[in-house]
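Let us walk through a complete example step by step. Step one is to write down the protein sequence. Step two is to encode the small molecule, zinc ion, as a SMILES string so that its atoms and bonds are unambiguous. Step three, shown after the inputs, is the structure prediction itself.
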Amino acid sequence: MSETLRNRTSPLRKPELPSYAVSPGAGLIRPATQCPSPNQDERPSGVQPELIIIHAISLPPGEFGGSQVRELFTNSLDWDAHPYFKEIRGLRVSAHLMICRDGELIQFVPFERRAWHAGESRFRGRSECNDYSIGIELEGEDETPYTDEQYLHLTAVIEAIRECYPHISARHIAGHCDVSPGRKSDPGPAFDWLRLYDGLCSGRRGER
Ligand SMILES: [Zn+2]
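Step three: the predicted structure of the complex.
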């Protein structure tokens, strides 16, 4: 493509953004790649999702585009494939969703069930955040800017989740660093919270 053409077309280019929707009973979001994780169980009786926790993950740390996070969340990671994996050998974790660098959305656990993402955690005095939260992993790491596609898809995904669980307000979105301070730092200083809030405010469904 010539420089002239690129300059003319790039400002007009809009990323394709699917219209996400959550099925109320099953807690599945569509469209998404379904990649069920065995690392899940029942939420406590009567407990619904009330909080969204944003994480960052990449395996090995800082390397993007591979399948290792999927393998970790499905207990199929080869612990001997990289020196770092020895440090996490045997870890059994998951998240409800992951948003890849290109915006691809992967669901590992239905929202109605408990994913194992927050560990020891506390939000406004209430512990055991896994019981009542939805965990969203961004493929990334603390110091590397997240992609435009990730912000767009994250915003749209949160809007769809809030359509299904309207009691989750913008005040009920936290980073892993917020619920596990001192122990966890993700999504890190690279995550632009104002950009997320701006996106939610200007979304077609508006802020609540
Ligand atoms: Zn995390």
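Step four is interpretation. Residues 1-10 have pLDDT under 50 and may be disordered.
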